Amino acid sequence: MVMNGRLLAAAAIAAGLAVHAPASAQVQFATSETRAVTYSSDVAAIIQQNCIVCHRPGGIGPMDLVTYEDARRYATRIRAQVSNGLMPPYAYDRNIGIQDLQGDWRLSDEEINTIVAWVDQGAALGDASAVPPPPSLPAAHEFTLQAELGPPDIIIRSTPIDVPSEGNDMWHRPIVPTGLTSDRCIKASQVKPATARAATVVHHAIPTFTRTQSDGSVQTLERATEYAMGKYGEISPDGVCRIAPADSDVRWDIHLYPGGVGANAPGTVIEDNVVELGLWLHPEGYEYEYKQDLGYYGFEEGPTEMIIPPGGTVMTQGLSSWDHPVRIDSWQPHGHLRLRAASLEIFYPETGRTETISMVSNWSAIWHQSHIYGADSAPLVPAGAVMIQKNWYDNSAANPNNPDPDQWVDYGARTADEMGHGWLAVTHLDEEGYQRLLAERQARQRPAADQ
Length: 451
Hints:
The chain is α+β, with helices and mostly antiparallel strands.
């Protein structure tokens, strides 16, 4: 059983303006590095490990960064983007909440300082023979999780649809068989547009497992995963099961935006656009103790509660609670062009304490991430505790993503409308399992001298 609640706090809050400041106003890194920093010895490895997955021929990045010549040409731009925390594009605040994350794209302070020093010193090559060879990467449009997990066990493709170069938002909702003959536990999942040109026209894509009954009605079973622009994929923790049911179909809910969003939008017709769901499955008979699911529970504001005036700011809150203990395995905030920041908190009624779990203060609609918590950091939430997601919106000209600060903005599914919720991957526990996991974690975190 899930107990949901909603609360809207709509006000032009001055404090919110600091949270929503444009990226260009953030404090940039400065470095006191005095040693000679070169591309070959110091910078090439950072770029190869963190940048060329997107910035390469056929990738989704707007320029290539494969060679020294590439990096030297864009050195000033690289410095600005890296020092502001805008690249790699992983909008998750440092020093607030849980920092132990799987698949964390952020550069370390040391890596940022190294790049800043390299550019400030003139972006020297160094010993050309010492440049490390580039890593082996999957093809530009393969599933990114394939580098870690190998090819998916099954791939389920939506039916093709043409997306025009301009026009109103579109929704495509085909139903496609999975081909599964037995229930299987999902190890990992990833949704992606089939081509880079399509990546900016697919606003979101939600695949849900369904089954058609003998009377022709459609039974909704499980949500497979969720995709929004820029998201890579989800990996489930060991010992839990998100079920891919036997004899099921995938019902796609695909939101398409003609012309595309962001700097890489093609602005042309995309013919036969297809979205793909890759599933990595545990072996048949996989043993698990608890079930995991994905949802946003009570984090949606509702269709009548959000109105953002021209030039205004608004904050919303969504609340969720369970009558049993849970573990929060991942969190992904979602909104549109006016959303600037989001946070996730836990309120403990027994003590009155509120704990901030995660914060994103420079959110971007073109880079969604599922923040997957580490094994010893995923919040263990007792029964009755309340999860709180807060969202801050900026409809002013100070918001660089805002297409028109003179418009009233209401809740809605179109890209020009606004919404805000958080996708949570939740493992549902019982009291015995909760206490055992809590004790095991405390034992691992206890200093060796105390054990």
